Amino acid sequence: MGGVLEGIRVLDFGRYIAGPFCGCLLAELGAEVIRIEKVDGSEDRFTTPVGGSDGEGLIGAGYLHLNRNKLGIALDPTKPEGRELVRKLVRTADVVVANLPIDTLRSMSLDYESLKAIKPDIILAMSSTFGESGPYAQRVGFDAIAQAMCGNMYLSGWPNEPIKSWVPWTDFGTALATTVAVMAALMHRTQTGRGQYVEGSLLATALTCNNASLIEQAVLDVDRVGTGNRSQTSAPADVFRCKDGAILVRVVGAPLFKRWATLMGEDHWLTDPRFKSDIDRGDNSLVISERMQAWCENFDCAEAISLLETARIPCAKVYSPADALTDPHVLAGGFFKQQQYPGVAKDYPVMARLFRMSDSEVGPRSRAPTLGEHTEEILAQIGVGADDLAELRVKRVIR
Question: Which of 172, 205, 307, 323 is the most buried (most CB within 10 A)?
């Protein structure tokens, strides 16, 4: 079984998450992905360090996660010699991935017009915080900026206390969207012979994910404010304390609400007009959450979950990261694969299957590359000999 993108070469100039995860997904699907980073290592290599070595320095958890299955080159594309190396690499590539500001791309000749002049059928996948058009196009930003601007933080927190998600979901969502666009662009190229420019942005991802709330606001002027974990559009849908921890319960729709009322042994919830629909239950969710909280206090988490599962009500214990790593379903389902990296003291888990394909290989095959690990191998393919490599190293064009 091979990957569906075998034979596709991707140059990954991504940094942090949105670009690298797009490259990671393309690599999982079988593409040859070459990560190109700064001679001394790009910033995301060192974020959230979990180890390191004398020759390389610190190594970050996010780097290990997002750069598996890739080859690694370290070079400086701002120097003339580095720029020429990039030009030669582009001639061999099908896709270029970059989540750098458009002015930076132009300065590195990685904008679409420059790339197309080198290889007419190239596909450029670019992502940024705000997108290329509009008054904020030149602003820099991270995931949290998009979370703040889409209404998510306002609605996820409490009045006067917005809450950001710990997980950078707009970064990962943008990478997923950009990957879909790259796959579509590859299909389009097969049909027409033409490459194209695809663009994602963190703000577009965030606004997409929160679109239903924005539609409700535009149509009804509801002016919702945050209620923490408690839903405003159904109930009980909240986090509840048990004797030994907390569980999340999610009841949406009349059938589930009927099961919940039966579990409580209280039919009056089904005849009270305050709770006749999801939105009514959401409007009066505090009353329902208080009842559910009183019920949960009688049990530890495992007991409460067992009773809820018997009633076919969606629920889960609120896990710490350590809990997530040892969950029996996670272990039995093969969600993670253990990998090793020089200078990291322990084997570490990388996600083994975001999705499965019945007739194609998907998943991690190799660890993230050390800094410049494959520089000689890749440059030799474009005609750079040993003497040239030595000179380029002296000039710090490559590592």
Answer: 205
